[in-house]
Amino acid sequence: MSLPMVAIVGRPNVGKSSLLNMLARRRVSIVDPTAGVTRDRVSVVIEHEERYFELVDTGGYGIEDHDNLTDHVENQIRYAIAGASLILFVVDLLEEITPLDEEVAKLLRGIRPPVQLVANKADSAIQEQQAGTLVSLGFGEPISISALHGHHRRELTERIFNLLGNEVGSDAPSPVLKLALVGRRNVGKSTFINALAGGERVIVSEVPGTTRDSVDVRFERSGRTFIAIDTAGLKKKRKHKNDIEYYGYTRALASIRRADVALFLIDSTVPISEVDKKLAQFIVNEYKPCVLVVNKWDLAKGRAGAESYADYLEKSLPHLAYAPLAFTTATEGRNIHSTIDVAQSLFKQAQTRVTTGQLNRAIETVLAAYPPSANKHGAQPKIYYATQVSICPPTIVLFVNNPALMRETYRRFVEKRIQETLPFEETPLRLVWRAREGQSRAKAAE
What are the DSSP calls for 302-367, one per residue? Predict the structure, then answer.
């Protein structure tokens, strides 16, 4: 069952993103005094007493965007209105009704979904009394709130559910897979996501940095629900010009942490950069399954073959040597859905559990092929047994006589052989080396 959508609409700087964060009870949208921070539709599922709806934040209507994306932003607002079951029309109670407020009101008059007028920035009872003047907009009595301070959050939530009526969702959504699309600027992440969603779900532009926030996009495929997370394009930290870019950077990293699989988009027409290498290391450090998505492959024809490019990536990003490759042309939708098939396979690997017997037979094979060598003092490292303790990532505890005796090169060798021997070939493992209970280090070093 799909959830009803509630769209937040209004001119710039009336507190739309703060309202979304207030209802979600967490920071989802970037909040900044700079007009035009939100460009795409940013969504979150809201739950209240086991009832659910999808809340969507939109860009400010009428914003003069310095990157000439005003039309794109307003198209996204219209898409949100067209798909909504309810509109929250937000105005600033501390200001007089502006011409842009009137334009938004004109846009919303006569549409199919009901419109709830929301008077934001009502930080005191005196200010709440001023809300009556907003009736002239033509949407009845507004509900007064303070999104920044959380005033009247419950009242607004209950009003929303009352207006949604029978459309309200009674089942918690259970996305099968969360995919974080990450990469540096202008590699085609938004185009890729629109190809998945089958429509212009996020703004696509040649202007680098168009996506400023992390945008959750739900899409259906073969009867399954997925979430694709479009993230801000990354660049070197020292080049962040303002708070908005910094927040976009930190949100992109946070999106990797909460995703099940990272789709790491790489532009096939330009060399691997330091930003790519640092992003790869972050994915590795988070133990995230990853698909290396080589995008704009149509533009690389005659310049490189798939095998030679794979060799180039293995040398450039050696820590992600386990990650499968997908060669795509997002503008034409080429290989987009097969990439999702690969991501599903990785997620399945990350959820795999093996028995202690399977694991220890694999360890025996490793020891037979290449036993650990003694250190310069003659102390001999020993692996007694191993067990898997969790999934996502598959986490394996190896009980040894002394973890300090295990060289890093040998640890990497063991990890690689376990990946090859067991069904973890393309997903990262977390190996925990632990001294066997009752085994003293002094005795182990004798």
Answer: TT--HHHHHHHHHHHSGGGTTS-EEE-BGGGTBTHHHHHHHHHHHHHHHT----HHHHHHHHHHHH
Model-wide pTM > 0.85: no
Burial class from Cβ neighbours inside 10 Å (0-12, 13-18, 19+) for residue 211 reads: buried
Look at residue 383 and tell me whether its pLDDT is greater than 70: yes
Task: Determine phi and psi for 275, rounding to 5 degrees.
Answer: -65, -45
DSSP state string for 103-168: HHHHHHTT-SS-EEEEEE---SHHHHHGGGGGGGGSS-SPEE-BTTTTBTHHHHHHHHHHHHGGGS
Sign of the Cα torsion 396, 402, 403, 407 reads: negative
Q: What is the pLDDT of residue 346?
A: 95
- Residue type, position 222, single letter: S
For residue 302, with 0-12 CB atoms within 10 Å meaning exposed, 13-18 middle and 19 or more buried, which class applies?
exposed
The total domain count for the chain is 3
**CATH code, 422:** 3.30.300.20
Range of the domain at 313: 177-349
Buried b (16+ CB within 10 A) or exposed e, 329-338: bbbeeebbee
Count the Cβ atoms, other than its own, within 10 Å of residue 358: 14
Q: Indicate whether 146 and 14 sit together in one domain.
A: yes
**What per-residue confidence (pLDDT) applies to 247?**
56
Does residue 369 form part of some domain?
yes
- In angstroms, the CA 351 to CA 359 distance is 15
- 318 vs 111: which has the higher pLDDT: 318
If asked whether residues 316 and 194 sit together in one domain, one would say yes
> Where do we find the tokens 């996009």?
217
Taking residues 353-369, report their average pLDDT.
93
| Statement: residue 433 has pLDDT above 60 | yes
For strands 430-435 and 395-400, give the pairing: parallel
Binning pLDDT at 50, 70 and 90, where does residue 335 land? very high
Is pLDDT above 90 for 20?
Answer: no
Confidence of residue 384 (pLDDT cuts 50, 70, 90): very high
| Average predicted confidence (pLDDT) for the chain | 81
Contact 349, 324 (CB under 8 A): no
Q: Which strands sit side by side in the sheet containing 42-48, from one edge to the other?
A: 42-48, 51-57, 5-9, 86-92, 115-120, 143-144
Q: Per-residue pLDDT averaged across 22-48, rounded?
A: 63
Question: What does the DSSP 8-state code read for residue 213?
Answer: S
Q: Which of 305, 293, 298 is nearest to 338 (CA)?
A: 293
Question: Rounded distance, CA 40 to CA 229, Å?
Answer: 12
More confident residue, 278 or 125: 278
